[in-house]
UniProtKB/TrEMBL annotation:
Example of a GO cellular component annotation carried by this entry: plasma membrane
Name of the protein: Phosphate transport system permease protein
Annotated InterPro entries: MetI-like, MetI-like_sf, Phosphate_PstC, Phosphate_Transport_Permease
Transmembrane segments: 21-45, 65-98, 110-128, 166-189, 237-257, 277-300
Protein keywords: Cell membrane, Membrane, Phosphate transport, Transmembrane, Transmembrane helix, Transport
Species this chain originates from: Prauserella marina
Entry's Gene Ontology molecular function annotations: phosphate transmembrane transporter activity
Membrane topology type: Multi-pass membrane protein
PANTHER family according to UniProt: PHOSPHATE TRANSPORT SYSTEM PERMEASE PROTEIN PST, PHOSPHATE TRANSPORT SYSTEM PERMEASE PROTEIN PSTC
GO biological process terms, semicolon-separated: phosphate ion transport
Family membership noted in the UniProt record: Belongs to the binding-protein-dependent transport system permease family. CysTW subfamily.
Taxonomic placement: Bacteria, Bacillati, Actinomycetota, Actinomycetes, Pseudonocardiales
Record's keyword annotation contains ATP-binding: no
Length: 314
C-alpha cells in the first residue's frame, strides 16, 4: 500500500485576546525604546552640528574639535579599560566563591551585599574615593614612583593629594564590580549539573571541574558582562569629576597630579558656565561618548546572544 501523501494540517490556532494584548504591548515597548534612542541621537547630532562645521579657532582651545575631544576621549578610555582589568578577575573570583565555595547562608548574604553595591549613588563613591582612598594611596604611589618610575604608568612625580587617575580607576572598578559579578554568577549557576557531576565522577577536583566545565560554559557571559561593565565605566560622571585633579593633556602617568579628564566629567563640570558654541562643543563630545557606549553595548549584546546553548544531553 503506497504511503499517504496527505500533508498535516497547518491551521493556525487562534490567539487568545490576552496573548494579542501582551504581544502588542511588548512590541510597542520595543518600538518605543528605538524611538527614544533615535530621538537622543537626533538631538545630539542637531545640537553638535554647529561645532562640527565651525572654524577651528572658534572651538574652545582654538585648535579644533578633534584636538578638544581627543584628550577627553583618551582619559575616558584609559580609566574605563584599566577599571575593567581590575574588576573582571575580581568579579569572576567572587562569583565562583559565592557559587561553589561559600556555605549557602554566607553565599546568600554576600550575594545581597554585592547587589547592594550597585544601588549606591555614584557621588558617594566619589566622596569615598576623594576623602578615604586618595590619602591612602599617597605613600604607595610615592614608592611606585621611586622604584618603578621607569614604567610610564608610574613615572611620577606622585600627587601630594592622591587625587589621581589611579584612584579614579579603582573607584570605577568598585562601581562596575557588582554588575559584572551578577551576570557572571547567573551564568555559572546555569552550568548543566550533569557536566559538573561527570567531571567529579571522573576524578576531577573541584577546581578542575570549574576549569573544564564551568568556565568554558560561562566564557561568553564573562565577555558580555565585561562589556556591560565597560559601558557603565565609560559613562560615569560624578565619581570621576570629584576624584580627579584635572589638568588636561594626554598622559599614561596614573599617579601624578596632571590627569586627563573624561568626556562625562568634563561635560558635568563645564556645562553650567558654557554658552553658545561652547555648549555645542560639549554636546559634540557627548555625541562621541554616546557612539562609543552604543557600540560597546551592542557588542556585549551580540556576544551574549551568540552564546551556544547546550545542556547535559548533548
Amino acid at each position: 500500500m503506497p504511503p499517504s501523501t496527505t500533508r498535516p494540517s497547518t491551521r493556525r490556532v487562534p490567539q487568545r485576546p490576552g496573548d494579542r494584548i501582551f504581544s502588542g504591548l511588548s512590541t510597542g515597548a520595543g518600538v518605543l525604546i528605538l524611538i527614544a534612542l533615535a530621538g537622543v541621537a537626533a538631538f545630539l547630532i542637531t545640537e553638535a552640528w554647529p561645532s562640527l562645521t565651525a572654524p577651528a579657532e572658534d572651538i574652545p582651545g582654538g585648535e579644533g574639535l578633534l584636538v578638544y575631544v581627543w584628550p577627553l576621549l583618551f582619559g575616558t578610555l584609559i580609566s574605563a579599560l584599566f577599571a575593567l582589568v581590575i574588576a573582571v578577575p575580581l568579579a569572576v573570583a567572587i562569583a565562583l566563591f559565592i557559587t561553589y565555595y561559600a556555605p549557602r547562608r554566607i553565599a546568600q548574604v554576600l550575594g545581597y551585599l554585592i547587589d547592594l553595591l550597585a544601588a549606591v549613588p555614584s557621588i558617594i563613591y566619589g566622596l569615598w574615593g576623594m576623602q578615604v582612598l586618595a590619602p591612602l594611596t599617597v605613600a604607595p604611589t610615592t614608592w611606585l614612583s621611586e622604584y618603578l618610575g621607569f614604567i610610564p604608568f608610574f613615572a611620577g612625580p606622585p600627587s601630594a593629594t592622591g587625587r589621581t587617575m589611579l584612584v579614579a580607576i579603582i573607584v570605577l572598578a568598585v562601581m562596575i564590580l557588582p554588575i559584572i559579578t551578577a551576570v557572571v554568577r547567573e551564568a555559572f549557576l546555569q552550568t548543566p549539573r550533569l557536566h559538573e557531576e561527570a567531571s567529579l565522577a571522573l576524578g576531577a577536583t573541584r577546581w578542575e571541574m570549574i576549569r573544564m566545565a564551568v568556565l568554558p560554559f560561562g566564557r561568553s557571559s564573562v565577555i558580555g558582562a565585561s562589556m556591560l561593565g565597560l559601558g557603565r565605566a565609560l559613562g560615569e560622571t560624578m565619581a570621576v569629576a570629584i576624584v580627579l585633579s584635572v589638568s588636561g593633556g594626554v598622559t599614561f602617568n596614573l599617579i601624578s597630579s596632571g590627569n586627563p579628564s573624561t568626556i562625562a566629567a568634563n561635560i558635568a563640570l563645564q556645562f553650567p558656565e558654557s554658552t553658545g558654541l561652547s555648549v555645542n562643543t560639549l554636546i559634540a563630545s557627548g555625541l562621541v561618548l554616546f557612539a562609543i557606549t552604543l557600540v560597546v553595548n551592542m557588542i556585549a549584546r551580540g556576544v551574549i546572544n551568540r552564546r551556544k546553548e547546550f545542556s547535559g544531553a548533548n
